[in-house]
Amino acid sequence: MCGITAYTGKGRALPFLIQGLEKLEYRGYDSAGITLVDNKELVTIKTKGALNALKEQLSTLRLDQKAGIGHTRWATHGIPSNLNSHPHTNASNTLSIVHNGIIENYQSIKEGLAMQGYTFVSQTDSEVIVHLLDYYYQGDMKATLQKVMSYLEGSYALCVLNVDEPETIYVAKKESPMVLGMDESSAFCASDIPALISYTKDMISLEDHQMAVLRPGTIEIFDQQGQKVEPKIIHIPYDLEAAQKNGYDTFMEKEMHEQPYVIKETLRGRIENSIVMPELDSIDLHEYDHVYLIACGTAYHASLYAQYLGREWMDIPITCVPASEFRYGNYIVNDRSLCIFVSQSGETADTLAALKMCLEKNAMTIAVSNVLDSSLARLAHIPMYTCAGPEIAVASTKAYTTQLVLLAAMMVKLAQNSGYEVKDIDQFIYDLKQIPNLVKKTLEKKEIIEQYAKLLKDQRDAYFIGRQLDYVNVLEGALKLKEISYVHADAYYAGELKHGPIALIDQGTVVIALATQKEVAAKTISNIEETIARGANVILITAPGIHSEKIERQIKIEAVHPYLSGILVTVLLQLFAFYTAKEKDCNVDQPRNLAKSVTVE
Ligand code: F6R
Question: From 252's CA, which of 480, 557, 571, 595 has a CA 20 to 30 Å away?
């Protein structure tokens, strides 16, 4: 989720680079930098922190160069620091690169280059790229880049500056976005449309494995074999604000649609035939008496999911507690406790306080955070990261589903490390790999959800019911709905309805029921029928093979391992909350009374 800008032309490069980085600020970042080239010399200036810190450093310099590359970094490998900031240069300062994405095989490349005498100044995966280019470069950058691309595993959007060709920028792409544009005297590119939109509305979206060569007033595109291909021009019909939302009306909508990509990024390098999490190699649950999962809000729901999986696969006590309760409850924590903390921001006051308490009691701690080097990640013994990128909408969507997949993989890993047999493991891992694609298909069901959301237009209340794993999903579905649409939403175990809540069901009451778990689906369906008998309008979400003739509004998720169905259900419930909020004319991105990061108790 880094931001990239690059320019070559007849005018000064710097203003273009900076305006582009400013337009990408909404993506969030922790450091920024630029390299400019002129007279066979590269000038690189980079710094940790806000773009203003970089601008301040630049303000005292006279920089008239006509080509350059710029970058804002959202850290994934290596803490935010001056050295880890991009651009990265080679030792002789003749090459400079900016990179967005994750190079999965950077460790092995790094080891190979180290044997050739290369030294590394950063902890990033990206730095290997510039040294690899340096290693192979013999005067033909296009051929060199092509060769380097063939060695890189993972994802990249990449720009290269080279003192030998100060007017040329080489660009490469795989699984990370890159858009290009030009006018008669310049050519430019960026990782996202907003950075270019004040300059052109006609852009080229580089495709995977393609390379581009930018020179003032020209762009050439090449395929993987180095053959020239005709660029496909796309016209962007919207303005800057819409472009920052990628054409969507709200950040929440954009972030929901980013889920296939960020889930893939989160799992990248983590699943082969089994789960790859070397951070957890040393954890054997037999050394612990108790596992705690501790978090707040949506992250607490993700933790409940992990608790469920853990209990299915292992026989160690696993307890999930909201951080605000854990702090004041009398839980037994000592050096035989494994405490897992989950937080998008990594800065939530209650979660942090609970972590500090556990550290004082000598517990082993793991933090799952979406922000590299967050307070939580820094304090815990083992930091683990989701790769959702910055989440701007207050209601968490992509951060939650990335937590679900990471925690699912973690639970498999912990169970296997500790010698527990995970039933159906091959199918589970196979289906986990399919999740990005299945989420994509789930998002395509949005029209039907939009229709169903109209049921709540004049309603003040909604009830969500489910059993077993579906109960975790109803909790999250109800939270999302109340948070952004202000509809009072309660989540109940379906079997508990009869014990009180059914008194609330009346003519027209909306009930959202989940029945994706085969063993208990029939039971939930009979609970649903009881609500229909009292006049409820029911929306039923089921899995293939589960059906009820009597329920008019039904939607089926894609076929998937039952333990993963919740991810697809969640996407439907996010859409449901979103369309209800739209129907009620609510501010979807900034609901009242809520803050993105709750840093006070
Ligand atoms: C709901 C939501 C909140 C957060 C909670 C914890 O959509 O976003 O419930 O999940 O405030 O925040 P983090 O995950 O940053 O600790």
Answer: 557
Tell me which DSSP letter residue 124 carries: -
- pLDDT digit string (tens) for 323-358? 999 999 999 999 999 999 999 999 898 999 999 999
Active site members: 2, 596
Centre of ligand 1 from the C-alpha of residue 296, in Å? 6
- Model confidence at 485, pLDDT cuts 50, 70, 90, reads very high
> Which helix (H) or strand (E) segment is 520 a member of?
helix 518-532
Is any ligand 1 atom within 6 A of the Cβ of residue 2? no
Give the helix/strand (H/E) hosting 400.
helix 398-417
Which residue in this structure is represented by tokens 């035989």?
336
Closest CA to 23 of 242, 169, 219: 242
Confidence band for 597, pLDDT divided at 50, 70 and 90 = low
Instruction: State the pLDDT at residue 548.
Output: 86
CA distance 64 to 60: 13
Average of per-residue pLDDT across 368-390: 91
* pTM of structure: 0.83
Query: How far is residue 299's CA from residue 396's CA, in Å, rounded to a whole number?
Result: 9
Ligand 1: which of 256, 324, 593, 598 to mutate, judged by most atoms within 8 Å of the beta carbon?
598
Q: What integer pLDDT is reported at residue 547 of this predicted model?
A: 85
Widest distance between CA atoms in the chain = 81
Please work out whether the CB of residue 345 comes within 6 Å of at least one atom of ligand 1. yes
Ligand 1: which of 304, 341, 343 to mutate, judged by most atoms within 8 Å of the beta carbon? 343
Ligand 1 in reach of 473 Cβ (< 6 A): no
CA angle 125, 129, 134 (to 5 degrees): 145
Contact 453, 579 (CB under 8 A): yes
Residue nearest to atom 5 of ligand 1 (CA): 297
Give tens-digit pLDDT for 229-252. Answer: 999 888 887 777 777 888 899 999
- Rounding to the nearest 10 degrees, give the CA dihedral for residues 424, 343, 588, 254: -60
pLDDT of residue 601: 62
Atom of ligand 1 minimally distant from the CA of 351: 16
Per-residue pLDDT, 1:
64
Residue 259 CA to chain centroid, in angstroms? 7
Nearest CA to ligand 1 atom 16: 343
Strand 31-38 versus strand 41-48 pairing type? antiparallel
- Sorting pLDDT into bands at 50, 70 and 90, what band is 194? confident
Return the residue whose CA atom lies nearest to atom 9 of ligand 1.
Answer: 297
Count Cβ atoms below 10 Å from residue 417 Cβ, excluding itself. Answer: 17
| Nearest-atom index, ligand 1, CA of 397 | 7
- Written as six digits, the tokens of 236 are 């962007």
Q: Which atom of ligand 1 is nearest to the CA of 348?
A: 16
Ligand 1 pocket test target in 298, 326, 352, 486 with most atoms within 8 Å of CB: 298
Question: Helices then strands (H, E): number in the chain?
Answer: 18, 25
- Other beta carbons within 10 angstroms of residue 120's beta carbon come to 15
